[in-house]
Specification:
Helix 6 packs across helix 7. This protein folds into 2 domains: about 200 residues, Alpha-Beta Complex (2-enoyl-CoA Hydratase, Chain A, domain 1), CATH 3.90.226; about 55 residues. The radius of gyration is 19 Å and the shape is globular. Helix content is about 50%, strand content about 15%. A hairpin with an 8-residue loop joins strand 1 and strand 2. Strands 1-2-3-4-6-8-11 form a 7-stranded mixed sheet, with helices on both faces. The protein has a 4-stranded mixed sheet with strand order 5-7-9-10. With about 270 residues, the protein is an alpha/beta fold. The model has no long low-confidence stretch (mean pLDDT about 90). The longest helix has 18 residues.
Amino acid sequence: MPDRFAGIAAEPLAAHQGAPLAQRAGDLLRITLNRPAEHNRLDPADVDALLALFERLATDGGTRALVVTGAGEKTFSSGYTLDAIVDELDARFERMLDALESLPFVTIAALNGSVYGGATDLALCCDFRIGSPGLKMFMPAAKFGLHYYPGGLRRYLTRLGLPAASKLMLTAMTIESDEMLRIGFLTEMVPREALGARVDAYLDHVSRTAPKVVAQMKRHLHAMAQAGLDSPDGRATMAAMAAAYRESLASDELHERLARLLEERQRPK
């Protein structure tokens, strides 16, 4: 399967050195974290550029899927630069990650290498995380004496469950690919040489889906994961999900898509 972004020039999101790079192929977008010699760490200026991008993507209606990856073959990202944690780690970092998490389309973290610190949360913000054998991850916040911000703890808990979140957050232990897959941090693990093709397979399937329904179901899945089934918010979300379900059943798009599928099945093979 060809790389959809092959031959497309990568444009920096901002003018500063090491800014993340963006490539657009129609309604698909790939962001590459761009400091391979420094484990693709994120500077405050990178956070600003990514936040501005995600806020724009949330409303422009022109994107079906986003892939986030890192330059090089060693590290996806080491997270927020240590030099800036004390003086410049403010609400912008959490806002940037919340904005990524809530994008109304599919997001994929293509883990070209190991992942550390705040970049583990960046990956958890994505709907899918695809990696390869030989990766490592750890969350060093407790080792720093840093109580992790609420959004990050929430994502660790809702994505990975209490036992895994506790192990990673409370011990700062390093885990490797097999355990990353077992606890759900990795959605899939494929050989390194197959990573690009597997990401492209996801993009191929996403391109056949209905964007409005994807956005609705993603929003509702996240809401239910956070609220729980029996809470007032959970029941309200269930009602909203039921309304969206009824709306989709009556939609012209559903009928047209089903008709095309049925027509394709009836064609002689």
